[in-house]
What does this fold into?
Amino acid sequence: MQTSNRNRLRTALVGIAFVLAVGLAFTAGWFVSKPYGSMAAGLSSASGTSMATLIGVGTNPPADMMAPADFKQFWELWRRLRDQYYEQPVDEEKMFQGAMQGLAASLGDPYTVYFDPKTATQFQESLQGKFEGIGAEIGIKDDLLQIIAPLPDNPAEKVGLKAGDLILKIDNQDTAGMSVEKAVSLIRGKKGTPVNLTIGRYKEETDANGKEKRTPYTQEFVIVRDVIVVKSVKTKYLDDDIALVEITSFNQDTGNLFTKAVDEILTKNVKGLIIDLRNDPGGYLDRAISVAGEWTGEQVVVKERRQGKIVDEYYGTAGGRLKDIPTVVLVNQGSASASEIVAGCLQDYGLAKILGTTTFGKGSVQDYSEFPDKSSVKITIAEWLTPKERSINKIGIEPDVKVEITDEDYNANRDPQLDKAVELLGGKPAPAVSSKTQAKPDDPKAN
It folds into this structure.
């Protein structure tokens, strides 16, 4: 009997980005409640020259700190800011939250983040699958803020936003150096209110010498926020007895919905199956493992490497009912983390052909912990590997069959990736279009 995480599988997040609605949504990592018993410093209401008073101030670093920092200097800076700043009173609570955010950000990892209490609450709420916003996930890649994936049939998709779009401005505020958390706070809002995004894209052109070139340009989008309800699994049946299952995210309802989809598919005697993971930014680890398990059975789905060593293996939690059905998995640069875990696993075992373009490359693990004041911290502690120990992080999953979608395809509602998948399964290519947004596949900032 294999042990490891089979009997103690953690509820985990392995997604990529932030839903632009209530707040954070899918930044990869374990989602474990592990409150801290105490804090080095806290805040209490008080009157005086500031809006909050710091308590528990200390000058000594932790005993196990290898290179002790001069905490006296930190508190001296604090005192000077508090007492000398020209606009009084200063808000020490904001100073405290800012210091915590800066400490996490100093590591230079976009997925190691401190959440103030409000943002931490938004993180929890956005995982419920219903929120208010524009219906898209964002993240940072190559130090640029960008759309990871628009959610199908929601405002962002309807106005024409695509995976890989660079977010240059939010309501005329420049995003250079902006954190994802800050961008989320600017973009999210109540139903019926607008937000303006300045988007950067590339245009494919041919110069006078017949040489192809990519010219950057910007485009303005005004998106009216709405209530976003995400149903993560949709099933349809194509001609030639081929089933198409679209998984838009790995959230709370994915396990049950996918199980029902498999139950139905097995009654249809289909000759082929297409799993559409395009623009799926990820979600819960255990959902990804249960989905993959419908092909792998109890084999290893993903491994965890920490500081150069394999520290854990996660086994499939389903019965391998789809292993004998020819399968093609569609991916693109908007497929991230949990999507990449599933695609990489099925590719390693030869249980499916991966078709499309290279995935996003989000394969790190974050530990999520809460503080007593309901703030929280998410710290990158490890990376995900496929069963054959291929790294996903910063690399992504290369498709077995590379098929791109051009701007012309997108504008004409053509889906050559889906057509090719049907062809590989012995069907006849048709002009059927997936309900998912087809994204420009060759944007170097998204690959």
Summary: The CA atoms of residues 354 and 400 lie 5 Å apart. Confidence is low (pLDDT under 50) at residues 1-52, 431-447. The chain has ten helices and 25 strands.
